[in-house]
Amino acid sequence: MSRPATLAGWLAYLETLHPKPIALGLDRVRAVRARMDATIACPVVTVAGTNGKGSTCALVESMLRCAGYRTGLYTSPHLVRYHERVRIAGRDAGDEALLAAFAAVEDARAGAPGGPVPLTYFEFGTLAALWLFAREAPDALILEVGLGGRLDAVNVVDPDVAVVTSVAIDHVDYLGATRGDIGREKAGIYRPHRPAVCADPDPPPTLLATAERLAADLVLIGRDYGYAGEGTQWRYRGLRGERFGLPYPALRGAYQLANAATALVVLDLLHARLPVAAGAIREGLLTVALPGRFQVLPGRPATVLDVAHNPHAAHALAATLGDMGWFPTTIAVVGMLADKDIAGVVAQLRARVDRWLVATLPGPRGASAARLRDALVTAGVDPASIRAFGDVAQALATAREDAGEADRIVVFGSFLTVAAALSAPAR
Question: Fewer CB under 10 Å: which end of the chain, C or N?
């Protein structure tokens, strides 16, 4: 068949190359990468974690960029445009660059000995990103793990610093049902005799044991680095001493201090190769941006967007909503994937929400509004406070019609939910 001529065509084609949307394992990715020129020469930071990895990546990128370094950043999933996944020098990759990268991967994949190698959408995109980064030669590369760690496509690259931000229950069909199982998988990004950061204050023994077995240089929050809020500023204690009077990061939520401290310990570990001055740290904290993480839209009523989709993230969202102050009514617009712990998420947020507008998400993994409604009722939510909608746009439009200026709307449950809200027509 002829190759796609547009980015949309390529993305549709990528969906056809493997029978499963998720197929963990590195053999196929390594085989294709070996046939490509995708060598990374700069320092690499790989970040895994149930929650917090996107914020940590954004903070590291922001501070390095403010120090004058040219960065590469790979994240997933995207919210609105695929281009968001690949950032070079703070800019999303353009169509022309992505088309060239996809063609390079297809050449290597299709021409492999023994026939074309089946790759998932994420594996193909990861290889394309690595090909682009190899050509752009950034000063530092930050890679966000897609799922788990040990068998994620990103793990074909050996990181100079590997970070696990948190270990909580999610993706149990792929990673296991316990924190021990999940911690073991995430610790698979650690490398022998290289820095291995864990930002979870209660790391599972399996993560510690994996780091020890690999002879990684383990750096633990609470033991080797930490932070403390001090009024309108905060203090960081790290591997190179203490930093006082730091501004709070522009990302909202008290939990972001742990992510900021983890980003700073990464800079400590890279200092010999990529020194960052105090002024760049301050500027990076103040200017960091990450859509969909307690993102407050301008105007009234207050509208909060958050991609929280598991109980651990929902707990943090509930706490930050509590810190916002008092609102007469809070209306939730919720869409979730069917394989998530819907009841666990609802339990964390039930006390913060007065009315629930549940919406069906598209695709085979999307939970129907009816299923969400049943889960809410089972979790103890008053059925009279729940309304069901065919999609997020309808639910959000209704929330905006019903909310008074002093009320609050919170949109959460999935990247797809937040993406739909960002793409919905403005009031």
Answer: N
Angle between helices 342-349 and 311-323 (to 10 degrees): 20
Q: Are 377 and 386 in contact (CB under 8 A)?
A: yes
Q: What is residue 402's three-state secondary structure? A: helix
Peptide bond into 77 cis (omega under 30): yes
Q: Kindly state the DSSP code that residue 165 receives in the 8-state scheme.
A: -
Domains delineated in the chain: 7-287 (3.40.1190.10), 295-423 (3.90.190.20)
Q: CA separation (Å) from 135 to 41, 141, 153, 381?
A: 10, 12, 19, 53
Could you tell me the end-to-end alpha-carbon distance of the chain, in angstroms, rounded to an integer? 44
pLDDT beyond 80 at 427:
no
The reported pLDDT for the residue numbered 130 is 98
Residue pLDDT, tens place only, 366-422? 999 999 999 999 999 999 999 999 999 999 999 999 999 999 999 999 999 999 999
